[in-house]
User: Which sequence fits this backbone?
């Protein structure tokens, strides 16, 4: 396959850039706008790609040497070849172009060694991740995004015990060390309460319980400030709000942190293991149990019932809100909404469907530096 020249025109989706070669649109990785590169172009599912640049004819002023030795092979990062200032510019412009206004602020802490969790596939004597455009597994003995503790577990435990195992390993970092689970291939990942592995994590004066079987934010360096900002966004209204409803409440991080400013908080979550850990945290801190109403509901298939809560808090996964939840919000009358999203595209889609509310302001928290992901924390107010 011969090398072809590609001119990079603009920024695409999911870390790709849009290039042109012989009047053909090409999705290109590991480049930048205005670069001219030469690489191999291939077709996949009717679209043209280039993920292996062999020559940089015209180089971006932001291009730097990636820190990670696996960068061009592993599918995790997409901006290590650019300065962080350029990455910040890209993410800010992406949010602004869809939302119609700039963020109030942009927060970032460490751009490396910030992750307190790991999810690796293990197969054929390898443990690691898959390249973006390939099914083949890349063996990785160190990830530059992960904390020293997680990397030590990767090196001393996963890499030394990978032979003969086929499946997935998940690990999270608690206050007393790494908690992990190895999921054999072709076996259910569903875990019983009796077999649940978990540990404590102290944050902002609260104790939470985390597990490889449940979700907890991977970047604890920004998590503390993110929680404080949620609280400030509520308190700045200067009105007396008695109750809150949180959808996708997880292990209770937001609701438990906000408990001092509400008389009643309802938490709704799909994962019963997450709710179990939330209740355990409430017990551990001796909080008033009658303040919390904890419900399990499949929020992807079923809509919550009518709510009389004053404030709605939303923190969904990247898929965003289902139409049933959108309809539920439109049929109720919350005084305002706090919506935090790790996918700016589904966030923009969702808020357009809300009939009573408009975007008042938002903040970018870059929980995932060197990747194309970032968190948007927003307040929506009644029109």
Assistant:
């Amino acid at each position: 396959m011969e090398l072809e020249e590609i001119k990079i025109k603009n920024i695409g989706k999911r870390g790709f850039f849009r290039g042109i070669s012989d009047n053909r649109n090409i999705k290109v990785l590991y480049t930048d706008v205005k670069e001219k590169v030469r690489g191999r172009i291939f077709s996949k599912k009717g679209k043209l790609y280039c993920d292996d640049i062999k020559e940089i004819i015209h180089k971006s002023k932001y291009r730097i040497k990636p820190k990670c030795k696996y960068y061009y092979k592993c599918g995790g990062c997409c901006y290590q070849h650019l300065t962080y200032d350029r990455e910040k510019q890209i993410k800010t412009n992406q949010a602004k172009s869809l939302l119609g206004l700039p963020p109030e602020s942009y927060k970032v802490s460490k751009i490396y060694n910030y992750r307190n969790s790991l999810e690796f596939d293990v197969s054929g004597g390898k443990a690691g991740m898959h390249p973006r455009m390939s099914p083949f597994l890349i063996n990785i003995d160190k990830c530059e995004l992960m904390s020293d503790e997680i990397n030590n577990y990767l090196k001393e435990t996963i890499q030394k015990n990978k032979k003969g195992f086929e499946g997935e390993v998940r690990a999270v970092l608690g206050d007393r060390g790494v908690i992990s689970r190895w999921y054999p291939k072709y076996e259910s990942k569903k875990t019983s309460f009796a077999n649940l592995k978990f540990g404590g994590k102290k944050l902002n004066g609260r104790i939470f319980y985390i597990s490889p079987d449940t979700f907890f934010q991977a970047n604890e360096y920004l998590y503390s400030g993110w929680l404080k900002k949620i609280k400030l966004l509520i308190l700045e209204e200067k009105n007396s709000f008695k109750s809150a409803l949180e959808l996708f409440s997880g292990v209770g991080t937001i609701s438990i942190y906000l408990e001092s400013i509400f008389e009643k908080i309802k938490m709704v979550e799909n994962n019963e293991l997450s709710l179990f850990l939330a209740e355990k945290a409430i017990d551990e801190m001796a909080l008033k149990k009658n303040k919390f109403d904890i419900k399990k509901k499949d929020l992807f298939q079923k809509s919550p019932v009518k709510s009389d809560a004053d404030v709605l808090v939303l923190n969904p996964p990247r898929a965003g809100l289902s139409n049933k939840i959108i309809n539920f919000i439109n049929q109720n009358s919350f005084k305002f909404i706090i919506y935090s999203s790790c996918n700016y595209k589904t966030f923009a889609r969702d808020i357009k469907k809300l009939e009573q509310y408009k975007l008042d302001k938002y903040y970018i928290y870059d929980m995932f530096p060197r990747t194309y992901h970032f968190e948007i924390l927003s307040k929506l107010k009644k029109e």
